[in-house]
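A common beginner's mistake is to predict each chain separately and then try to dock the pieces by hand. The better habit, illustrated here, is to supply every component at once so that their relative placement is modeled jointly.
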Amino acid sequence: MSRRFTPKIVTANRLREGDVVYLTADDRWSPFHHEAELIEDEAHAQMRLLHASAQKLLVVGVYLADAKPGPNGPEPTHFREEFRTRGPSNYNHGKQADYA
Amino acid sequence: MYSYSEFDEAFVRERVAQFTSQVERRLDGSLTEEEFRPLRLMNGLYLQLHAYMLRVAIPYGTLNPRQMRLLAHIAQTWDKGYGHFTTRQNIQYNWPKLEDVPKMLQALADVGMHAIQTSGNCVRNVTADHFAGAAADEIEDPRPVAELLRQWSTDHPEFQFLPRKFKIAITGSPNDRAVTRAHDIGLRMVRNAAGQPGFEVIVGGGLGRTPMIGHTVREFLPKADLLPYVEAVLSVYNTLGRRDNKYKARIKITVHETGKEEITRLIEDRFAELRPLFGGNDQKLLAEIEEAFAPPAFRNAPTDAYDAFYSADPTFRSWADTNLATHRNAQYAIVTISLKAHGETPGDATADQMRLMADLAERYGHSELRISHEQNVILPHVHKSDLPAVHAALVQAGLGTANVGLISDIIACPGMDYCSLATARSIPIAQEIATRFDALNLEHEIGPLKIKISGCINACGHHHVGHIGILGLDRAGVENYQITLGGDGTETAAIGEKTGPGFAYDEIVPAIERIVRAYLEVRETPEETFLDTFRRTGIAPFKAALYGEEGEKDAA
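With all components supplied together, the output reads:
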């Protein structure tokens, strides 16, 4: 019995800056989790992962992360991914400062 | 201190040039990430949660003011104005951009520094007692030997692809401030019956998922045999180490699986082969290095000003009582500058703070600075008459916290605020514990107590050897913190004992408070430290405080 597929988003870090980014449905890399494409089909997730991994001059460390639908778009389900959407908790650095 | 020879200089410059070209080729697509990754790691560049991270080696924790100022310059120019000092006497920059890293390495090379072998399965930065060359209890300054090991291990062709990373720590004192028993090789200087200095060689210690205290494979190794002996240990490990399983690849597992007697025999056999191949050049080199570590010209001056300030100023007295250590010259003191201001991030210093510490070292400290594995900065040689001025300047810069060795002097790894391996956060836990006990005004009453926090099983925060250790885990998608008690990183090293089930993020600080209150209740005298009390009573009173009656019953 295969486990039920949980929705995913594609995420990575920008090659030059290292910033966390998310793959959107229209093939952009967005700094915002809520702009990510929420992928509900496993085969489609693999296709999007391959598509993202091929963009070697733009991003590094591409992977699929669990997500869930929210009122403004996909939301992280795990605290690690939640931290990645904003930055560290000890300083106002990273996204929480850059996009405040 | 040691200055780069022409050879060192040329080697580091060449490496910077190579890496500059490798970054260019990664950015233009000539190198894939799979090809580039091992190259960047060889040069200390990691990819973390929010950004890249550059880890720069501070060999045996020693810096001069020029180097410290350069670290400040890097922080300000290519990072966010601060640096993080680590438990392995490195500094980490959390926000570099890939294309800036070659410039950072170029700048480091200008002051004889680099990021080589701060990652990968090689011999890592050799760490040493941060009081080296100054401590009253020292047999000899261990840093010349550490420098010899650095030169020997740098780009050593036989040891670039070990089964796993390899960490060496060295101390010249009977009081172990370098955690030698929890390293792959720990070297502890001792004297033999004839009074000659040599080393106790400890092999197979380590923390991480399988914490182990190292075994002594040689009670006394003559100083002149050190390099061939260390090479013999590496050589045996290189052959036997488990390359099939990353989790069993460290030498501690090799020692455990092979047995102490057999591994000792193998090392001694290999040593017998290697010893004759060392024709004495290593000793010539060591003699040259030792000259570079000659003690500074100590000043001979009255110390009345110190005594007067000590009696008159309670703030200064409190700082002097916690942050000073005994220097071998009675007119001098060793100053530990706390990077643990209550509520701040353990081990972080701003560029301005780094510059101030460099200035103080230059003006009052014979131009020497040290970074401790406990994430503080040391001025090893300060004349006592200068201490009031040093203290006043530190206070102005937010560096005057009088808490060294106390409950808020916490070791914390970066945890999930930065590290991609982490399973939970460590920094905010450290911040909250420090703030809580400061608010309770209990810190000085509690006395010596080492809390060490790791944000994952890899134990960069040394939690196993904390008097109170905290390990952050991911339990079913929620941060959870496991407590160990009774760990010890000194010459009486011990691995802490787990108390029982872990605590949620918002429960961990109250749990630590219950442990500390239990200690205050059961200690026999105010002089009985937390560790002494734990060793006398065992874990039972602490379990009871943590979990109630049920815990007490379990422990009985």
